[in-house]
């Protein structure tokens, strides 16, 4: 009873800290991309449009929360977290394109290709991806590390984006459209398409502050479960929510096999909760320092209950 009371007392402070981290990311992002008036103006405007749209910033906050759990959030780590958000924004531009999901809305606004055209949207996505890797390389080289190298951090991000990560998951997701697939294959797709960037975000935060390798393993387990749970929550939102509630097209996944289609709403909710419980268990050795990560898991849990 006393422990629950303490948790209730701490939660507002933890939530306040997460909001501060979101604000730090939002303040830093526009400083890290070329200004819209610099040539090529339209591409830079489109990059800013996609990157600076209102969002939860869950992935960069994951990076910052992990770093803070092991040490402190430095300006270098903040920039690494912003690089993660740039990769995410790049993926959203491409995911929304007519040859992909053909989405009209993202984060409550028209998708980038509908505002700037498909040609500019593609260039903007590559502009963000290029800036993300350049920024990550610059900041990684400035870190003082004993357990990892700057190359380790860049390889981590490269693997998360590549054909064994986000790109591979997206490709398999497209191949599976209109086909019946089993739960194992669905989990594989989304542990790469969605989960790979969650895992990279968390691992980057740990490596940037030179966390012990065994602690890095615990963070990896947390992030893998969190990322897959996030995707299941997203599937639930697609079925249960409206466009006004989510800021993006609802019922967009009707032609795809989703966790909801395979398991039903109750089954998907149960699996999401189970994954988040596994994620929480991974943090058992970190005590109260991991409370911001636990709160991020609760954010995902609430997301799946709309």
Rg estimate, integer Å: 19 Å
Number of domain modules: 1
Spans where pLDDT lies below 50 across 5 or more residues:
1-6
CATH structural class: Mainly Alpha
Count of DSSP strands: 2
How would you sum up the major sheet?
2 strands, antiparallel
* Helix content range: over 70%
* Residue fraction in strands: under 5%
Q: Main sheet: which strands, in order across?
A: 1-2
Oligomeric state of the chains present here? single chain
Secondary structure class reads mainly alpha
Tell me the name of the CATH homologous superfamily: Farnesyl Diphosphate Synthase
Distance between the termini: 29 Å
CATH topology (level 3) name: Farnesyl Diphosphate Synthase
Shape: globular
Arithmetic mean of pLDDT:
92
Q: What is the annotated CATH architecture?
A: Orthogonal Bundle
Q: Total number of helical segments?
A: 14
Reading the helices and strands in chain order gives HHHHEEHHHHHHHHHH
How would you summarize the topology of this molecule?
Elements: H1 2-28, H2 41-51, H3 58-70, H4 75-96, E1 105-106, E2 109-110, H5 112-116, H6 118-142, H7 150-161, H8 166-175, H9 183-193, H10 195-208, H11 213-240, H12 243-246, H13 259-281, H14 291-303
Antiparallel strand pairs: 1-2
Helix pairs in contact: 1-3, 2-6, 3-4, 3-10, 4-6, 4-10, 6-7, 7-10, 8-9, 10-11, 11-13, 11-14, 13-14
């Amino acid at each position: 009873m006393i422990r629950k009371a303490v948790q209730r007392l701490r939660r507002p402070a933890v939530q306040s800290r997460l909001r501060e981290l979101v604000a730090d990311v939002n303040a830093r992002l526009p400083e890290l991309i070329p200004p819209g008036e610099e040539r090529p103006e339209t591409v830079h405007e489109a990059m800013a449009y996609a990157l600076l749209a209102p969002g939860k910033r869950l992935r960069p906050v994951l990076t910052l929360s992990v770093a803070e759990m092991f040490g402190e959030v430095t300006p270098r780590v903040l920039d690494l977290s912003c690089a993660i958000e740039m990769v995410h924004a790049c993926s959203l531009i491409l995911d929304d394109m007519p040859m992909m999901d053909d989405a009209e809305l993202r984060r409550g606004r028209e998708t980038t290709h509908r505002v700037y055209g498909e040609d500019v949207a593609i260039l903007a996505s590559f502009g963000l991806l290029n800036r993300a890797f350049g920024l990550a390389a610059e900041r990684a080289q400035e870190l003082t590390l004993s357990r990892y190298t700057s190359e380790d951090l860049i390889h981590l991000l490269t693997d998360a984006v590549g054909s064994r990560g986000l790109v591979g998951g997206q490709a398999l997701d497209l191949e599976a459209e209109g086909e019946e697939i089993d739960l194992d294959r669905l989990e594989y797709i989304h542990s790469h398409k969605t989960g790979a960037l969650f895992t990279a975000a968390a691992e980057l935060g740990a490596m940037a502050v030179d966390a012990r390798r065994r602690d890095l393993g615990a963070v990896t387990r947390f992030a893998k479960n969190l990322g897959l749970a996030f995707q299941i929550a997203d599937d639930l939102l697609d079925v249960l929510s409206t466009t006004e509630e989510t800021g993006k097209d609802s019922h967009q996944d009707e032609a795809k096999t989703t966790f909801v289609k395979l398991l039903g709403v109750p089954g998907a909710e149960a699996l999401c909760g189970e994954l988040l419980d596994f994620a929480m268990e991974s943090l058992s050795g970190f005590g109260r320092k991991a409370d911001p990560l636990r709160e991020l898991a609760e954010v995902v849990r609430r997301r799946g209950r709309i």
